[in-house]
Amino acid sequence: MVDKKATQHREVRDDWNEKTKEFTTTRNELNNEVRELIVQVREQRDLRDQMNEMVREKKKERDEANQAVKTAKDSLRSTLPEKPVELDRRGRPIRPPTVQSVARTMERLEREFNEGKHSGPKAEPAYFKKMKELASTLRQLKEEEKNVDVGEGNAELRTAVAAQEAAHHAVKEAADAAQSAHDLMLEWNSEVDRQREKAEAAHRKLRTSKKEADKEHSLYIVSLRCLHSIQDILRAMRSASAGDGQRPAASDETQDLMAKLLSGETLSTEEVMQLQRFD
After folding, report:
1. Which of 177, 150, 180, 124 has its CA nearest to residue 69?
2. pLDDT digits over 160-200, tens only?
3. Does 45 fall in a domain?
4. What pLDDT is stored for residue 177 in this prediction?
5. Which of 110, 124, 189, 246 suits 55 as a labelling partner, its CA being 20 to 30 A distant?
6. Rounded to whole angstroms, how far apart are CA atoms 202 and 156?
7. Segment (H or E) for 46
8. Residue among 199, 197, 200, 185 nearest 38 (CA)
9. Do 19 and 209 meet the contact criterion of CB atoms below 8 Å apart?
10. In-domain check, residue 275
């Protein structure tokens, strides 16, 4: 019975040791993947930072191009006849509408209408009438601006506008590249977290299997010690039955192996199997 129990503990221990090897391999492979992914994250972060720096440079170039366009427009408008300044009821000058100001007003009115602030039998027709007037004003301002911008002989303005458009396109391209690098970096970060979780799970399984293997090994050693104690008793009983007053001892090799085992030394598989066999 003890021999059977020892064999059982040894087999269970060997199973746990085999699982420990598998979990160790899995954990190490996952940790290697995590390290490689971290390198990818760093490379994407560096690329993103380079793209962000390029965006800042391109924005400076765009600002310079915008200023050149503004200067060219101001220079052109200075040659046009001045329009009379309109005053309000208090005598203050009324700022003339621009494409931007009219567009903002239309956006605000449309937002208010969607929120239900211009509903009713009188308010709704007034809203549509106002929007129609603003749309007409916007078309007129855009046409005037277009005539000013691309007026015949205005080479300086056309050159400035072309540079402005090119600079804006360069900013957009750099910003898109920076965003793509940032998105990919976040994706790699998420993959790092997922692989790290798997590696930690494999490590937990490794610790559990190693703990179980150590427990089964301890039980196996206890079984061996019990087995050899029984062997000693059986030898003594056989000796007593034979009328021999001397207590037979185990073989020298067996005694040496037991001494090594009890002293905490590690035995080979063959040595352990030899201990389990009866003399």
Report:
1. 150
2. 778 888 888 888 888 888 888 888 888 888 889 888 898 99
3. yes
4. 87
5. 189
6. 69
7. helix 2-77
8. 185
9. yes
10. no
* Local structure of residue 71 (DSSP, 8 states): H
3-state secondary structure of 93: strand
Give the model confidence (pLDDT) of 65-121 as tens digits: 888 877 877 776 666 556 566 666 776 776 777 777 888 898 888 888 888 887 888
258 belongs to a structural domain: no
Number of domains in the chain: 1
DSSP state for residue 278 in the 8-state scheme? -
Q: In 3D, which of 175, 226, 178 has the Cα closest to residue 49?
A: 178
In the chain, % of residues over pLDDT 70:
77
DSSP designation for 78: T
State which residues form the domain around 49: 2-248
pTM above 0.70, yes or no: no
Token pair for residue 13? 């221990």
Query: Out of 1-5, 153-157, 260-264, which region has the weakest mean confidence (pLDDT)?
Result: 260-264
- Give CA–CA dist 91/70, Å, rounded: 29
- What tokens appear for 160 in the block? 């400035």
CA separation for the pair 61, 163 (Å, rounded)? 9
How far apart are alpha carbons 76 and 51 in whole angstroms? 37
CB 23 within 8 A of CB 202: yes
Q: Please give the full DSSP string across 246-277, using - where no structure is assigned.
A: SPP---HHHHHHHHHHHTTPPPPHHHHHHHHS
Q: Which residues contact 154 (CB under 8 A, 6 or more apart)?
A: 72, 76
Please say if the pLDDT value at position 153 is more than 50.
no
Q: Residue with structure tokens 């290697």?
A: 32
- Among residues 1, 17, 72, 22, which one has the least CA distance to residue 269? 17
Copy the structure tokens of residue 149: 């911008």
Do residues 266 and 237 lie in contact, with contact meaning Cβ atoms separated by under 8 Å? Answer: no
In-domain check, residue 276: no
Is a pLDDT exceeding 70 seen at residue 248? no
